[in-house]
Design goal:
alpha/beta; Rossmann fold; globular; binds S-adenosylmethionine
């Protein structure tokens, strides 16, 4: 198998992360069965939209600004942002089905309706987003891929960043949180050439004012690693 995510067409892209985890609880199976059909965004998968027609964003958002969270994990940050920002519409992407089930439980609890999800690879979503439609993107604790030979699997590589840059509005904010110093290094090296400018870089105790700490951040803190928060703006 090749290891060049940027060389893959949508149907043939390599995805290296986990899709299934521990056995789902009965309640989680119920959320998936009852809620996923309503919460998921149609027209994103190749099966659903083989011509890769761009999504109708005005209809989706009702004219509200559109934000994206890449790899929402258990969904706590995504739901927090949806509840906190009723005048915004959010899309979350997450291929890990256990995370999707957790998110659906949180949506039920919060009663949030201003969000939708693609339960899969964010690159499938990028393919069908029109140019310059996103006002904000969150990348919280992306998979670290610690081995040097796997660094090109990271999100902060041209195979992902060029796709992201196309769909971000000029001036749109791109936030990256990570506990891995080498991920900070690669983010600072690779994000600006993709068309972004660094706005701020802070550490523990100095997160964004509307930040909600995620499961992976909590794990990092328990294990003695330090959070880093980077903010970029899309050029133009
Ligand atoms: C380390 S976890 C962090 C989860 C969550 N953001 C948090 O902070 O707790 C990284 C997540 O990114 C997801 N992910 C990896 N590659 C992805 C892709 N191509 N598209 C969407 N999500 C992806 C993984 O499935 C995983 O749940």
């Amino acid at each position: 198998m090749t290891d060049h995510p940027q060389d893959q067409t949508p149907a043939r892209r390599n995805f290296y992360g986990r899709v299934h985890g521990k056995t789902l609880r009965a309640s989680q199976k119920q959320y998936l069965a009852e809620d996923l059909g309503r919460v998921r965004l149609p027209g994103v998968t190749v099966e659903d939209n083989p011509e890769r027609r761009p999504l109708d964003i005005a209809t989706l958002t009702g004219g509200r600004p559109l934000w994206l969270e890449v790899g929402f994990g258990g969904g706590e940050h995504l739901v927090h942002m949806a509840v906190r920002n009723p005048d915004v519409f959010l899309i979350g992407c997450e291929p890990f089905v256990n995370g999707v089930a957790m998110l659906l439980g949180k949506i039920r609890e919060a009663g949030a309706e201003n969000l939708t999800i693609h339960p899969g690879d964010v690159r499938d979503l990028f393919d069908v987003l029109p140019d310059a439609c996103l006002s904000k993107t969150f990348l919280n604790y992306p998979d670290p891929w610690p081995k040097a030979r796997h660094h090109r699997r990271r999100f902060v590589t041209p195979g992902y960043l060029d796709l992201l840059a196309r769909v971000m509005k000029p001036g749109a904010e791109f936030r990256v949180a990570t506990d891995i110093p080498d991920y900070v290094r690669q983010t600072l090296e690779e994000v600006p050439p993709a068309g972004f400018t660094l706005v701020s870089q802070t550490g523990q105790g100095a997160a964004w004012e509307d930040w909600l700490s995620t499961r992976y951040e909590q794990k990092a803190l328990r294990e003695g690693r330090d959070p880093h928060y980077l903010t970029f703006r899309r050029n133009g």
